[in-house]
């Protein structure tokens, strides 16, 4: 009888192992190599490559066995407006003392409109508004009640910096949403301004001038609604010359803007801009499918996994390589979600699992914002969103990044999963680049759903991950990827070691099961701003 018992025990062990969803590398690699191929033309919003990507995703969702979610199908419409700056547009700055500056578009200034109008002529005074922040909880208001209607706001990116007396103001050395370019433009609209120009520096923006230059060179999109008549960025040297033209020193005004008593400064300069744009209305699509839950009560609640499918597309007017393939950003996340879904359909959890591929992340969270406006699953029944964006293409690690999880109970859940997988949680570091506000989990967080970008620290390239092998070499490769970020050179390479990407996907899926099978929904930590949002 001993042999049959041993065999039975071994069989049960194998069965138990088979019950665990396992992310396989082969489908992940196959999806990634296809999604990043020139055939998909960079998966551009409003372009043929985007349409091909959506068709591919809904086909794969059906093959995998995901159930339709969005209105009986896999597609959720995202209506947007596209704007492309046309030749013949120009800007000129006229100082009250007669000096004139005409910065070159692309190298000294980038700009466009979100007004929905094809032809705009603007003559408006420039006002320096410091950081352009209105933060009641910080007792901070850069506008001081000054009427900004019809004016062009010039402002710095990032947050007011900590001081010796207030080391923790605006989260100390970390970034807050008030520091993000999106917030700056949104606040300009709320102030009734004619537009906003942000002063670029690589340290304050956390990326080089090439990033906004590339973005504004492409067609830009936004959800239907009001936007700034003109918005853009000034290269730092251009801003310095502009301020000096009317007798102001940029550094002096920057220093003044670090104080609460700062007041808006009339720069004694007027902007004359003639903006000619091609405007079109488009309909893009999020793709979503589900693995229904098994628990009679808990299946009404869901965990969401998300990864944006879009990148920057193709530029027919560019010479040479004109396809922004977006292999890492974010073919990697899209492929990982497909591989995760393939594993998940075989092993349903107690709660429902939603696999969501949002559109238009590169143009300002269009898809995820549209999902939040019209959620395919009730937000008050959504326990968490686990997002994947720009994944680890270097190799396996001894730890995993969970930056942003500390805002909610997802940190404790992450620790449980990491321990089971023999991993450590990567050490917490200040969010110096505003990473928490730069991926598709953020609209979920703003809507009150606990959320973070899983493993995002890998992409930061800050060099604190503990790789299983080739530590210095692998860290150097991550740092080097910053040169490929939002460039046509972000391409798939068949010799990539994807073991780290599979590891990251497996951790995310395991975390999803941890929260999907938990007795209670995930919650924000006491005092976190997002926990105050009613959903």
Which labels suit this protein?
single chain; 535 residues; alpha/beta; Aminopeptidase; Glucose Oxidase, domain 1; 2 domains; 15-stranded mixed sheet; two-stranded antiparallel sheet; 15 helices; 21 strands; 30% helix; disordered N terminus
Summarize the helices and strands and which ones pair or pack.
Layout: H1 2-18, H2 25-35, H3 48-64, E1 67-68, E2 75-85, E3 90-95, E4 100-101, E5 109-112, E6 119-128, E7 134-135, E8 140-141, E9 152-156, H4 181-190, E10 195-200, H5 202-205, H6 210-217, E11 220-223, E12 230-235, H7 236-245, H8 250-256, E13 265-291, E14 302-306, E15 313-314, E16 323-324, H9 327-344, E17 352-357, H10 366-373, E18 382-387, E19 399-400, H11 410-420, E20 424-425, H12 441-446, E21 451-453, H13 457-460, H14 471-480, H15 499-516
Parallel strand pairs: 6-9, 9-10, 10-12, 14-17, 14-18, 18-21, 19-20
Antiparallel strand pairs: 1-13, 2-11, 2-13, 3-4, 3-13, 5-12, 6-13, 7-8, 13-17, 15-16
Helix pairs in contact: 2-9, 9-15, 11-15
